[in-house]
Write a structure and sequence with these properties.
- It is a single chain.
- The protein is mainly α and 241 residues long.
- The protein has two domains: 88 residues, Rna Polymerase Sigma Factor, Chain: A, CATH 1.10.1740; 113 residues, Arc Repressor Mutant, subunit A, CATH 1.10.10.
- Strands 1-2 form a two-stranded antiparallel ribbon.
- Strand 1 and strand 2 form a beta hairpin.
Protein backbone atom coordinates (compact mmCIF):
# COMPACT_ATOMS: atom_id res chain seq x y z
CA UNK A 1 0.00 0.00 0.00
CA UNK A 2 1.38 3.36 -1.06
CA UNK A 3 1.33 5.98 1.68
CA UNK A 4 0.53 9.55 0.74
CA UNK A 5 3.37 11.90 1.68
CA UNK A 6 2.43 14.44 4.31
CA UNK A 7 2.52 17.98 2.95
CA UNK A 8 5.08 20.04 4.83
CA UNK A 9 3.91 23.38 6.12
CA UNK A 10 6.00 26.39 5.24
CA UNK A 11 7.79 28.01 8.13
CA UNK A 12 6.81 31.68 8.56
CA UNK A 13 9.32 34.13 7.13
CA UNK A 14 11.02 36.30 9.72
CA UNK A 15 10.83 39.41 7.56
CA UNK A 16 9.73 40.65 4.19
CA UNK A 17 12.06 42.38 1.77
CA UNK A 18 10.76 45.55 0.18
CA UNK A 19 11.60 46.87 -3.24
CA UNK A 20 13.89 49.59 -1.91
CA UNK A 21 17.53 48.58 -2.29
CA UNK A 22 17.15 45.41 -0.27
CA UNK A 23 15.84 47.16 2.83
CA UNK A 24 13.84 44.72 4.92
CA UNK A 25 10.58 45.83 6.47
CA UNK A 26 10.04 44.96 10.13
CA UNK A 27 7.77 42.03 10.82
CA UNK A 28 5.88 41.29 14.00
CA UNK A 29 7.28 38.29 15.93
CA UNK A 30 5.41 35.00 15.74
CA UNK A 31 2.96 34.79 18.64
CA UNK A 32 3.90 32.43 21.45
CA UNK A 33 1.55 30.31 23.54
CA UNK A 34 1.73 32.90 26.35
CA UNK A 35 0.15 35.62 24.20
CA UNK A 36 -3.62 35.86 24.35
CA UNK A 37 -5.71 35.78 21.15
CA UNK A 38 -6.73 39.42 21.68
CA UNK A 39 -3.09 40.53 21.97
CA UNK A 40 -2.23 38.57 18.85
CA UNK A 41 -5.08 40.24 17.00
CA UNK A 42 -3.94 43.70 18.13
CA UNK A 43 -0.38 43.02 16.96
CA UNK A 44 -1.62 41.87 13.59
CA UNK A 45 -3.81 44.95 13.22
CA UNK A 46 -0.87 47.18 14.18
CA UNK A 47 1.38 45.49 11.66
CA UNK A 48 -1.26 45.80 8.94
CA UNK A 49 -1.68 49.52 9.70
CA UNK A 50 2.09 50.05 9.71
CA UNK A 51 2.43 48.26 6.38
CA UNK A 52 -0.43 50.27 4.89
CA UNK A 53 0.55 53.70 6.20
CA UNK A 54 4.30 53.76 6.82
CA UNK A 55 5.90 51.52 4.18
CA UNK A 56 4.80 53.73 1.24
CA UNK A 57 7.34 56.30 2.53
CA UNK A 58 10.22 53.82 2.36
CA UNK A 59 11.65 55.00 -0.97
CA UNK A 60 11.47 58.66 0.09
CA UNK A 61 13.25 57.87 3.34
CA UNK A 62 15.92 55.94 1.47
CA UNK A 63 16.48 58.98 -0.75
CA UNK A 64 16.83 61.18 2.32
CA UNK A 65 19.18 58.64 3.93
CA UNK A 66 21.35 58.68 0.80
CA UNK A 67 21.57 62.48 1.00
CA UNK A 68 22.64 62.18 4.64
CA UNK A 69 25.12 59.29 4.42
CA UNK A 70 26.10 59.44 0.72
CA UNK A 71 26.71 55.70 0.94
CA UNK A 72 24.21 53.04 -0.24
CA UNK A 73 25.04 50.50 2.48
CA UNK A 74 24.85 53.09 5.26
CA UNK A 75 21.61 54.41 3.78
CA UNK A 76 20.10 50.92 3.79
CA UNK A 77 21.17 50.36 7.38
CA UNK A 78 19.84 53.75 8.43
CA UNK A 79 16.44 53.14 6.83
CA UNK A 80 16.26 49.66 8.35
CA UNK A 81 17.01 51.12 11.79
CA UNK A 82 14.44 53.87 11.21
CA UNK A 83 11.66 51.44 10.33
CA UNK A 84 12.53 49.12 13.19
CA UNK A 85 12.27 52.02 15.65
CA UNK A 86 9.14 53.34 13.95
CA UNK A 87 7.46 49.95 14.15
CA UNK A 88 8.44 49.58 17.81
CA UNK A 89 6.86 52.94 18.62
CA UNK A 90 3.97 52.84 16.18
CA UNK A 91 1.43 52.00 18.86
CA UNK A 92 2.08 55.44 20.35
CA UNK A 93 1.67 57.29 17.04
CA UNK A 94 -1.55 59.28 16.81
CA UNK A 95 -3.34 58.22 13.64
CA UNK A 96 -4.31 61.17 11.47
CA UNK A 97 -1.29 63.32 12.38
CA UNK A 98 1.73 63.91 10.13
CA UNK A 99 3.18 60.42 9.71
CA UNK A 100 5.75 61.49 7.14
CA UNK A 101 7.24 64.12 9.46
CA UNK A 102 7.20 61.59 12.32
CA UNK A 103 9.19 59.09 10.24
CA UNK A 104 11.66 61.74 9.08
CA UNK A 105 12.23 62.80 12.68
CA UNK A 106 13.09 59.19 13.60
CA UNK A 107 15.39 58.97 10.55
CA UNK A 108 17.18 62.21 11.44
CA UNK A 109 17.61 61.25 15.08
CA UNK A 110 18.96 57.83 14.12
CA UNK A 111 21.42 59.48 11.74
CA UNK A 112 22.62 61.99 14.33
CA UNK A 113 22.87 59.43 17.13
CA UNK A 114 24.57 56.70 15.10
CA UNK A 115 26.09 57.52 11.74
CA UNK A 116 26.85 61.21 12.04
CA UNK A 117 28.75 60.78 15.32
CA UNK A 118 31.09 58.38 13.56
CA UNK A 119 32.20 61.27 11.37
CA UNK A 120 32.09 64.30 13.68
CA UNK A 121 29.97 66.00 16.27
CA UNK A 122 26.85 67.90 15.08
CA UNK A 123 27.69 71.26 13.51
CA UNK A 124 26.87 74.11 15.86
CA UNK A 125 28.68 76.95 14.17
CA UNK A 126 28.02 80.63 14.69
CA UNK A 127 26.12 80.72 11.40
CA UNK A 128 23.07 79.41 13.24
CA UNK A 129 23.08 82.49 15.44
CA UNK A 130 22.96 84.80 12.43
CA UNK A 131 19.27 84.69 11.72
CA UNK A 132 19.57 86.78 8.58
CA UNK A 133 16.13 85.67 7.43
CA UNK A 134 14.89 88.41 9.77
CA UNK A 135 16.86 90.98 7.80
CA UNK A 136 16.47 89.46 4.36
CA UNK A 137 12.69 89.44 4.07
CA UNK A 138 9.38 88.32 5.46
CA UNK A 139 9.47 84.59 4.76
CA UNK A 140 6.44 82.83 6.19
CA UNK A 141 6.88 80.52 9.16
CA UNK A 142 3.81 78.54 8.16
CA UNK A 143 3.50 75.92 5.43
CA UNK A 144 4.89 77.24 2.15
CA UNK A 145 2.11 78.54 -0.03
CA UNK A 146 4.18 78.27 -3.21
CA UNK A 147 7.23 76.33 -4.20
CA UNK A 148 10.61 78.05 -4.06
CA UNK A 149 12.53 78.92 -7.20
CA UNK A 150 15.12 76.37 -6.12
CA UNK A 151 12.47 73.64 -6.03
CA UNK A 152 11.32 74.59 -9.53
CA UNK A 153 14.94 74.62 -10.76
CA UNK A 154 15.52 71.19 -9.21
CA UNK A 155 12.58 69.81 -11.21
CA UNK A 156 14.12 71.05 -14.46
CA UNK A 157 17.68 69.96 -13.72
CA UNK A 158 19.08 66.45 -14.34
CA UNK A 159 19.09 64.33 -11.19
CA UNK A 160 22.86 63.82 -11.29
CA UNK A 161 23.46 67.57 -11.35
CA UNK A 162 21.06 68.14 -8.45
CA UNK A 163 22.67 65.34 -6.45
CA UNK A 164 26.15 66.77 -7.00
CA UNK A 165 24.96 70.28 -6.06
CA UNK A 166 23.23 69.07 -2.89
CA UNK A 167 26.18 66.89 -1.88
CA UNK A 168 28.49 69.89 -2.21
CA UNK A 169 26.52 71.80 0.44
CA UNK A 170 27.64 71.68 4.09
CA UNK A 171 25.76 68.90 5.84
CA UNK A 172 23.41 71.04 7.93
CA UNK A 173 22.48 73.19 4.93
CA UNK A 174 22.01 70.10 2.76
CA UNK A 175 19.52 68.53 5.14
CA UNK A 176 17.20 71.53 5.41
CA UNK A 177 17.34 72.30 1.67
CA UNK A 178 16.50 68.68 0.90
CA UNK A 179 13.62 68.59 3.37
CA UNK A 180 12.21 71.91 2.13
CA UNK A 181 12.80 71.90 -1.62
CA UNK A 182 12.73 68.17 -2.42
CA UNK A 183 10.36 66.79 0.21
CA UNK A 184 8.23 69.93 0.56
CA UNK A 185 8.19 70.20 4.37
CA UNK A 186 7.28 73.52 5.99
CA UNK A 187 9.68 75.44 8.21
CA UNK A 188 7.92 74.27 11.35
CA UNK A 189 7.92 70.65 10.21
CA UNK A 190 11.64 70.82 9.47
CA UNK A 191 12.26 72.37 12.88
CA UNK A 192 10.38 69.49 14.48
CA UNK A 193 12.26 66.90 12.39
CA UNK A 194 15.80 68.13 13.11
CA UNK A 195 15.06 69.40 16.61
CA UNK A 196 16.22 72.98 16.05
CA UNK A 197 14.48 76.36 16.51
CA UNK A 198 12.58 77.59 13.50
CA UNK A 199 14.90 80.59 13.21
CA UNK A 200 17.87 78.25 12.84
CA UNK A 201 16.02 76.31 10.15
CA UNK A 202 15.26 79.46 8.20
CA UNK A 203 18.83 80.73 8.52
CA UNK A 204 20.26 77.44 7.25
CA UNK A 205 17.70 77.27 4.46
CA UNK A 206 18.43 80.85 3.39
CA UNK A 207 22.16 80.19 3.18
CA UNK A 208 21.83 76.71 1.73
CA UNK A 209 19.52 77.94 -1.01
CA UNK A 210 21.97 80.70 -1.87
CA UNK A 211 24.73 78.14 -2.42
CA UNK A 212 22.45 75.78 -4.31
CA UNK A 213 21.23 78.66 -6.46
CA UNK A 214 24.80 79.50 -7.36
CA UNK A 215 25.61 75.90 -8.30
CA UNK A 216 22.47 75.40 -10.40
CA UNK A 217 22.98 78.83 -11.97
CA UNK A 218 26.46 77.83 -13.10
CA UNK A 219 25.04 74.68 -14.67
CA UNK A 220 22.31 76.69 -16.41
CA UNK A 221 24.85 79.13 -17.84
CA UNK A 222 27.02 76.28 -19.08
CA UNK A 223 23.96 74.84 -20.85
CA UNK A 224 22.98 78.26 -22.23
CA UNK A 225 19.69 78.29 -20.34
CA UNK A 226 18.19 81.77 -19.86
CA UNK A 227 19.06 83.51 -16.62
CA UNK A 228 19.43 80.22 -14.80
CA UNK A 229 18.22 79.27 -11.36
CA UNK A 230 20.16 82.12 -9.81
CA UNK A 231 18.39 84.86 -11.70
CA UNK A 232 14.96 83.30 -11.31
CA UNK A 233 15.45 82.75 -7.59
CA UNK A 234 16.67 86.32 -7.14
CA UNK A 235 13.57 87.66 -8.88
CA UNK A 236 11.33 85.47 -6.73
CA UNK A 237 13.00 86.53 -3.50
CA UNK A 238 13.03 90.14 -4.61
CA UNK A 239 9.27 90.05 -5.01
CA UNK A 240 8.77 88.98 -1.40
CA UNK A 241 10.80 91.75 0.19
Amino acid sequence: MIQTATKRARAPRARRVTRCAGVAAPHAPVASSTVSPSQTSEKRELEARFTRDALPFLDQLYGAAMKMTRNPQDAQDLVQETFAKAFAGFAGFTEGTNLKAWLYRILTNAYINTYRKKQREPYLGAVDELEDWQLGGAESTTAMASRSAEAEAIDRTPATVVTDALNALPEDFRMVVYLADVEGFSYQEIADIIGRPIGTVMSRLHRGRARLRQALGEYAREQGIGGGASGEADRTEGGTR
